[in-house]
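for the writeup, i need someone to sanity check this before i put it in the appendix. the sequnce is what the collaborator sent (i think, or maybe the updated version? ugh). structure was predicted straight from it, no edits. if anything looks off just tell me and ill rerun, i have time this weekend
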Amino acid sequence: MYELDGRPVVEIIDGLYGSGDWHHQHPVDLLTIGVNHGRRFGVPEEGSYVNRLITGILPDGKGIGMFEPDLEPGMEIQFMLRDGKKMIESARKNATELMAQVQADGKKARFGIYIDCAGRTGDYSNTPIEEAEEIQHVLNKHGTPLVGFYSGVEIAPFLHKSRGLDWTGVLLVLAE
């Protein structure tokens, strides 16, 4: 990506950071590009957003690299800040809601698989605990075995098709 609204994107991000210190980050630590696939105005809904990893500044210094090639000219984007506390709260809330839905459907959860972005580790996210621990605690409460691993890209259904997702945790619960 080279420009946004007719302005050099590197200049815009320099302004957000207040400096060019981020130029040395590969990937960029806290800032992502968000695409809202939900309602344009109103309360933001977590499940309507896709975040895109900024891999860093391009060698010529005139643009930024993106991990996924799905942004097109004219798309509306938002700069998003990663928030470790909200990430952990979200993992707990979504896992709890998923397990409640399994029970409400009259089923028994038998096994869970958690595919977690390597960028969500405690060290990288600057959190005191691993976000995946929240998933583990929720599934343990239900006596459901869990296996998980860190990934560079997570793939999950979104808007009726499989998509590569960045900065995401994908939980699959097998039930009968």
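The mean pLDDT is 91. The first strand starts at residue 3 and ends at 4.
thx in advance!!
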